[in-house]
Amino acid sequence: MLLEAGPVVKLVVLILIYSSVVSWAIIFYKGRVVYRAMRDSQRFLDFFWAKKRFDVISQGLRDFPHAPLSVLFREAYQELIKGQRRREGEDAPQSFDFSGGDNVARALRRATTSEIQRLEKYLPFLATTGSIAPFIGLFGTVWGIMDSFHEIGETGSASLAVVAPGISEALLATAIGLAAAIPAVVGYNHYLAKITNLSNQMDNFSQEFLNIVERMGRR
């Protein structure tokens, strides 16, 4: 049916096939990225609460390369070290003064924003495909039906044998549009929910980190 379709319908179908292939590639890629992030973040949380000492935790960050929480900890810890060096002129990471807490909070916010952007990379393509693919397919269908009516006008016959092939070719565009849109929408919603959970986890970790540093500054 695709080979016998008109050039406009063929172009529409090719666009939809391209969008579908890219969408599936993004779905598989984001599956690996998001699930690695979730797994390593949970492992890092267990490690963080087990060790408790910032200097010990910082030495084990390489074991959690895909954890957004490890990025948050690294950025916040480095900010603490910088603040301590500015105040005392030496490296004393376990005797923090919380006067630099605002800098640490900003570092945590920057790291959180950066990690969320990294996790959400390519998701807009899924959202776009899910939104417009059915309409692109519908455009191809309408154009194909117009061609069918034009052929009816030229042949002067409206028999099923004349009409059916053109209409079936036209409807192919709608079918492919739906086939491209449905996985894209499902994948987008699925990964957006997972990333939202990770974002909440990062916010909670940031608050816990700031609370720990504040308690350390009061000692």
From TrEMBL:
The chain crosses the membrane at residues 12-29, 122-146, 166-188. Residues 100-203 form the MotA/TolQ/ExbB proton channel domain. InterPro entries: ExbB/TolQ_transport, MotA_ExbB_proton_chnl, Tol-Pal_TolQ. Keywords: Cell cycle, Cell division, Cell inner membrane, Cell membrane, Cell projection, Cilium, Flagellum, Membrane, Protein transport, Transmembrane, Transmembrane helix, Transport. It is found in: Cell membrane; Membrane. The keyword Membrane applies. GO terms for cellular component: plasma membrane. The keyword Membrane applies. It is a multi-pass membrane protein. GO terms for biological process: bacteriocin transport; cell division; protein import. Belongs to the exbB/tolQ family. This is Flagellar motor protein MotA.
